[in-house]
Amino acid sequence: MAFHFRRLCFFSALLAVVLQLLHGVSGQLVVVEEPISAPPPPLVDLNTGDGIVPALFVFGDSLIDNGNNNNIPSFAKANYFPYGIDFNGGPTGRFCNGLTMVDGIAQLLGLPLIPAYSEATGDQVLRGVNYASAAAGILPDTGGNFVGRIPFDQQIHNFETTLDQVASKSGGAVAIADSVTRSLFFIGMGSNDYLNNYLMPNFPTRNQYNSQQFGDLLVQHYTDQLTRLYNLGGRKFVVAGLGRMGCIPSILAQGNDGKCSEEVNQLVLPFNTNVKTMISNLNQNLPDAKFIYLDIAHMFEDIVANQAAYGT
Q1: Among 275, 212, 214, which residue's Cα sits nearest to residue 243?
Q2: 82 prior amide bond cis, ω within 30
Q3: Which of 310, 79, 57 is nearest to 87 (CA)?
Q4: What span, in angstroms and rounded, lies between the C-alpha atoms of 200 and 142?
Q5: Domains (ranges, CATH) in the chain?
Q6: CA distances (Å), 150 to each of 6, 14, 64, 218, in order?
Q7: Rounded distance, CA 71 to CA 147, Å?
Q8: pLDDT tens-place string over residues 21-53
Q9: Residues 6+ apart with CB under 8 A from 188
Q10: What is the rounded CA–CA span in Å between residue 58 and residue 228?
Q11: CB neighbours (10 Å) of residue 237?
């Protein structure tokens, strides 16, 4: 989708809420589920032009991938038209016609567009890196039908490599630790674990787990992975829940007269519920951790129900 002005205002308001909460959350679950109508506070220091966080590190899948799959043997690529038709420079590997959500967030934070890990060089890494990979999941086997992809575990390993790069450029371990602690981590994982694992007939998981058990399995892995990022220095995390996946085009195309699949929508509910519990536990158990849950499903239900308010 195009990143139009009205959507920019929406994410600006959303980000304002997130950042306010990041400065105040302590040992509690914070859920961001609706945009706000009031103007957001400045996200950039008007005197210096600096953003309020030094860097943005992004982990996820095709919703926020910006080119990491371009040079690996994968069927999950978007470096060709019509992708990128509204992006200055054409197709880049983003699975949309313009900017992604995290591109907009970076701009609102006063940061440049965050480079893909596969392309980040030199001082670029000091402002953040995007590790997201189309078809990637929480589980390592997820997305195997697309051949190449970079699972979340590998994305975290790539972040460790970035830390080594940054340490050599910014004065050593102490300087990098301070920067990472103040940086924002955006994580959006889990959709492919359903679409390209649990719901795929050539994967055994649906025969091994019911929906609750699978949601439990995913969040067990997710907890370990987010804790790894915390142990690597991250403190401010925005974790996106799953949206109404029964309403996405690939599910609609399977039939049901163009209607959303409530079976799929119900299938992912245990995951979202478990992630909320996970975030509450992480905030309570990890010193100085500030995790925010983005209730994507509720947010977009609000957009659909109140289209006029969003200019659609």
Answers
A1: 275
A2: yes
A3: 79
A4: 10
A5: 5-310 (3.40.50)
A6: 32, 28, 13, 17
A7: 13
A8: 555 555 556 566 655 444 445 455 545 556 689
A9: 59, 60, 61, 63, 64, 132, 239, 240
A10: 15
A11: 24
Residue whose tokens read 């519920």: 273
pLDDT tens-digit series, residues 67-118: 999 999 999 999 999 999 999 989 999 999 999 989 988 988 889 999 999 9
**Cα–Cα nearest to 66, from 117, 109, 8, 107:** 117
**CB of 59 closer than 8 Å to CB of 186:** yes
Cα–Cα distance, 17 to 142 (Å, whole number): 32
Q: Three-class SS string for 93-110?
A: CECCCCCCHHHHHHHHCC
Residue type, 271: F
DSSP 217-280: HHHHHHHHHHHHHHHTT--EEEEE----GGGSHHHHTTSGGG---HHHHHHTHHHHHHHHHHHH
**Under 8 Å CB-to-CB from 224, ≥6 apart: which residues?**
none
State the distance between the two ends of the chain, measured CA to CA, in whole angstroms: 13
For all residues of the chain together, what is the average pLDDT? 86
